[in-house]
Amino acid sequence: MNESGHLLRRAAEHAISYRESVADAAVGATETAAALATAFGGPLPVRPTDPAAVLEELVAAARGGLVATTGPRFFGFVVGGALPAATAAEMLAAAWDQNAFNGVLAPAAIAAETAAGGWLKELLGLPASASTGFVTGGQEANTVGLAAARHHVLEQLGWDVERHGLAGAPRVPILAGVERHATIDRSLRLLGFGTEALLAVPAGPDGAIDIGDLRRLLPDGPAIVCLQAGNVNTGACDDLRAACELVHERGGWVHVDGAFGLWAAASPATRHLVDGIELADSWACDGHKWLNVPYDSGFAFCSRPQVHAAAVSYTASYLVGSGTTAAAADFTLESSRRARGFAVWAALRELGRDGVAELIERCCRLARRFAEGLDAAGFEVVNDVVLNQVLVGFGDDARTERVIEAIQRDGTCWMGATTWRGRRLMRISVSGAATTESDVDLSVDAIRRLAAAA
Ligand SMILES: *Cc1c(COP(=O)(O)O)cnc(C)c1O
After folding, report:
1. What's the pTM value of the predicted model, to 2 decimals?
2. Given CB 3.0 to 4.6 Å as the disulfide criterion, which of 127, 296, 314, 402 pairs with 136?
3. The architecture CATH gives domain 88-346
4. Where would one find coiled-coil regions in this protein (predicted)?
């Protein structure tokens, strides 16, 4: 084996020992940011370093600064782990170094995306004719979906936004729930609409929009409505069927932000939460959250492939109406691109339809186990646990903050804080494929012990 072979083998060994010990390690980082800055810092090296030495330096510097999100007891934000086959595929994707720009440059990468895209649409209950862009995550997927919406809605108003821009364009009403994800606002900003263009639709106590309010606020004619499948705090989903029917009756476009919640469609136990999902016009979903694919991995789906390409492709002018087949790069905001399809394909092969459904059901069941355990311990579970998200209060805001800090310092498990309806709360997200019942029980015990001391 040559030097580079030994190096890759050594990297694999490091990866193996990390994964084999991650379940027992402290979940949060154990080094301070300052210590990590020192470990990685120093002057720019003048001379080359032996690659084998670089690898050992990297491993030594990162140790203590790695957060065990692939382990079984990380419940912060909405963060999935990384399935074995998906991780291995990602390692190969790095070694193969394919540029998934198009099928000439990376035929295998595009074939994997095409196959995986079809499987994803089937699992998520989306139209088979929809286009799929393999993007960086929910943020890019929201930007792409809203760019398609912008193209379509303005075209209906007789305005070519790709040619003329937004200056002087007809005003487009944009509506989204008050509890929308912050990435929607950033996408609207980047697309030139500005956040002021957004009309917030009031939400009920669970964070899902009130359809009566949407009916009252939505004007007749072309408009963009952002719905949500899976609120980051409560897991609640908007009534997609009622909202899509209403918006389409009035001539608007529906974009669904379903970064993690769209996966409810993949299990018979939760499918009802996203009933009507197929009626929307564009969808944003993540692979790196609930599907447990390594970062970064997201999907931008659009019911009208030509609109999708016209909005974000740089070959759009000759694509539209010309019958030219769209390429992978026509559906994302990137030009050169990592081959994200390999890991997604591997994850879906590893799990199969039943495995995906089981993963979704298991996470929901474990979220309910958290809620029951913490409720039995006398803490306040604030939300109705419909999916994989649990909100917990430990009394006033200050005490809740103290408990969360103690949990993060302790290292048994990791939960973050959120503000929900004006209160500071602990948020639990069960999105990792590695979590078991005993991980939940161990975590509930730790929370009980730490809360008693706080
Ligand atoms: C996570 C999330 C996003 C953003 O997704 P990224 O993958 O972090 O870019 C958008 N919307 C919702 C509802 C999310 O949960």
Report:
1. 0.97
2. 296
3. 3-Layer(aba) Sandwich (3.40)
4. none
